[in-house]
Amino acid sequence: MPYLETEHGSRTYFEHHRGEKVPVLFVHGWGMSGEYWNSAAEALVRAGHGAILMDHRGCGRSDRDFIDLSIDAIARDVNAIVEQCGLERVVLNGWSLGGAVVVAAAELLGDKVAGMILTCAASPRYVQGEDFPHGGKPEDVTAIAGAITADRAGFFRALAQSAAAEGADPALIDWFERGFLASGPRASETLMGLASLDQRKMLANFSFPILSIGGGKDGVADPAIARYAAECATHGKLLIFKDSGHSPHLEEPVRYHEALLDFIGELK
C-alpha cells in the first residue's frame, strides 16, 4: 500500500495504477474515499490510461489526526503525489469538494496539468456571494459541524440519500452512508472551507481544457454551479447528466466513462 508521508508523520493513502496513456488523478467528495472512483479507474486502465486514486486527509485509509485538514492542504498532497509518482502530465478529476481540491492543486502543478474534469464540483464557489447567486448560504455550511456532532448517524443517512437522484439503488445509498460514517471526527473541518471558497479567478486563468459535469437532479451542489464553472473557464465545456443527482459517475457509469474517455482523447 503506497502512502504519502506528510508533515508531522501523518500519511495520505493513494494507489497508482499505471498505463501508457496520460493518467487521471481522481479526488473524491467530502467524507468519501478513493474507492468511489474504482469503476472509472477500471474503465481508464482498460483503455490504456493510468489512474491515481487517493483518500484525502481524514477519510478512507488516510490518517485522521492531521493538524491541517484544509482544502489547500489536500491540494498540496495532490501535488506531492504527482511528484512521487513521477508524472510529467496528468488530468485532474474532482468530485464535489474534490473539485475545489483539484482547482487548487492545478495552481501548484502548473504545466503538468493536461486537462481537468469537475464532477458536480463545489467550485468555483459552493455558496452564494458577491455576483454569485448560486448554491446555498455560508451559514448552511458552517452549521454542518454542529449537526454532525448532535446526530452523526441521522445526518449522514440524510446526506447519503441526497447524494443521488430520487429512486437511486438503495445499495448505492447504503454505500454512501458507510463512507460518511467512516470519515474521521474532524473531517468537517475540511468542509468549512467551502463557506468562503472563491476560485473564480483561478478557473478563468487556466489555459488547459476543462469539462464541467453536472447532475440535473443534484440536491447537494446546485447544477447552476457546474454551468457557471464551464462559462468561467477559458476553455470550458459543460455536460449535464439530466437524470443524475450528485454522483453521475456512479448513477450513470457507462455514459460517464464514455464522456471521460472522449474528453481525455481530445487532449493534446
Structural account:
The protein has one domain: Alpha/Beta hydrolase fold, catalytic domain (Rossmann fold, 3-Layer(aba) Sandwich). Strands 1-2-4-3-5-6-7-8 form an 8-stranded mixed beta sheet, sandwiched between helices. The relative contact order is 0.16. The mean pLDDT is 97. It is built from 12 helices and 8 strands. A hairpin with a 5-residue loop joins strand 1 and strand 2. It has 268 residues and is an alpha/beta fold.
Explain the layout of strands and helices:
Layout: E1 3-5, E2 11-17, E3 21-27, H1 38-46, E4 49-55, H2 71-84, E5 90-95, H3 97-109, E6 113-119, H4 138-142, H5 144-150, H6 152-162, H7 170-182, H8 188-191, H9 200-205, E7 210-215, H10 223-232, E8 236-241, H11 248-251, H12 253-265
Parallel strand pairs: 3-4, 3-5, 5-6, 6-7, 7-8
Antiparallel strand pairs: 1-2, 2-4
CATH topology: Rossmann fold
Q: What is the overall silhouette?
A: globular
The total count of strands amounts to 8
The level-1 CATH class: Alpha Beta
CATH architecture heading: 3-Layer(aba) Sandwich
Helix content: 40-55%
Overall mean pLDDT:
97
What is the straight-line distance between the termini? 32 Å
Number of helices: 12
Task: Name the poorly predicted regions.
Answer: none
- CATH homologous superfamily grouping: Alpha/Beta hydrolase fold, catalytic domain
Strand order of the largest sheet: 1-2-4-3-5-6-7-8
